[in-house]
Amino acid sequence: ELAMLLALLGAARALSTCRTLDLEAARRKRIEAVRGQILSKLRLASPPLEPPEGFSSSSSLPEDIKALYNSTQELLQQRALLRPPEDPEDYYAKELHRFPMEPPGDGE
What keywords is this UniProt entry annotated with (predicted)? Predict the structure, then answer.
């Protein structure tokens, strides 16, 4: 009986069209797809082989990039200080009030 059951199970598996899902292969395909999208946005055929001029790979970012980043952060902090505090009531929908007005009467 057991041999017959195993034979039937093998035959059923051979007829199955379901494939096992390889998550690692799907992950690699997704990474390649995103890499391709980034390269197409940058209008590049392949990733650059060497870093841009002025960029030292042994240290961090160039000084002009750091200065630009820091000045942007300071500007955002200043804008946040100047912005009026948010009113919690602004989050919720406002009620619409309607005041029916009667046309002015004759001589009243």
Answer: Glycoprotein
How far is residue 3's CA from residue 9's CA, in Å, rounded to a whole number?
Answer: 10
Half-sphere exposure of 88 (CA within 13 A, CB side): 0
Domain ranges of the chain: 1-80
More confident residue, 107 or 76: 76
Alpha-helical segments (H) within the chain: 2-15, 23-41, 63-82
The CA distance from 98 to 5, in Å, is 78
Mean pLDDT of 81-104: 75
Angle 17-23-25 from CA coordinates, rounded to 5°: 90
**DSSP letters along 60-87, please?**
-S-HHHHHHHHHHHHHHHHHHHHSPPPP
Q: pTM surpassing 0.85?
A: no
- Report residue 12 as tokens: 């059923």
For residue 78, which of 70, 87, 67 has the smallest C-alpha distance? 70
What's the farthest any 2 CA atoms get from each other in the chain?
A: 108
